[in-house]
Amino acid sequence: MHLHSIQIPSSRSKHPPRPAQRLVHPLRTASHSIDQFLFLETMASSISPGGSLSADLLACLGRDDMTDVHLLGTDGVEVPAFRIILACRSDVLCNMLVGNCEESASKVVNLRYSSDVLRAVVEFCITDDVKQFDGRSDESAARGIVQLIACAHFLNMPLLEDKAKAIANTLLAMEEHHSLACAFFDEASRLGEPTSSVKHDALLTVRKFATVSLLSKPGILALGPDTISEIIGDNEMTCEEITLFRALDEWANMEVEEGNLFPISIAERVKIAKKVTTEHIRLSSILPTDLASVVRKSCLVDEKMVYEAFEDQAIQAEKECVVPTSKRRKVVMPGITVSGAGVDPVNGFYKKDGEHDYFPKYTKMVHGKERIKHFASIDGMDNDTFQFLKKRGALEMRTTIFI
Fold it and tell me: How many structural domains does the chain have?
């Protein structure tokens, strides 16, 4: 066996090595979208300088004469890639691209994921990292990250799957991104088992930070008809019932924009929201003032539902409070009670009856009639006056006193 040596030119060589060929600007060699170009530029600049292999490969993605396969996204965008590198990083891609599968002879392969996800896959195959979603906090990014988890699971790329889950967990843990929890939850619900852990984490976020997660955009607007009931009906929410009602009402009246994932009319949304309200909203747990204003004015309830909520609140209040149940209402009159005066006709209850010589006057009731023929002031009465009145019999007839 003969071994062939490789001659490495030295600096003293008569013919010095040719300088590395300068890569031509991607936009000058192929017709790529501006977004595609920015993606390639960002990825290449994120690699450490010095002409690393990863940086060079990312730069070459912009050259049609160097890439040999395109991954077609569900949005119609083609993502350039290197067939051999993809095959080296995933056994599933290996079988598809260099095996006996139909895709092995095709220049364009449809993987049924968005172009954002496919760019992240290509990026990870080259760099072992994912920067595709850096600096983004929109609903599309949240859904893309969840899709990336499902895609990595399908391609049997556990390292990429773990990386995508870590990105999702980081976003969900950040206060400024709690409004994306519903988007994570909805997308994970659609994709099933591979994304179940993200769905659970998203639900925990909504439970703990319900007001922000539901009422801050995109918030509850990111939920579809199949998941709106699951969120509103969750029994572990830490918010008030009126918060859930407000969120549901906002979802029902959302204007559907072009390209929305759930293109259903307002009329259909209201119909769904009414059903969710009937099944899951506890109207009797909402403050009466909110029932009379927010709830009654919405299109999700009728007068009967509001009336029944008020009725339930009244019954509950009766159970929790002491309510007077006497057959006749007792009329409380202002007055005083005199006792121990020594003469029985003087003792008893005296109602307040105006003033006399700037003193408050009280009159005693006798069989429903006022006896006001004789009166005197008990307060300050000296013994001589008392004896005089006693001899005249005035004390027996006195019915008005002054204090």
Answer: 3
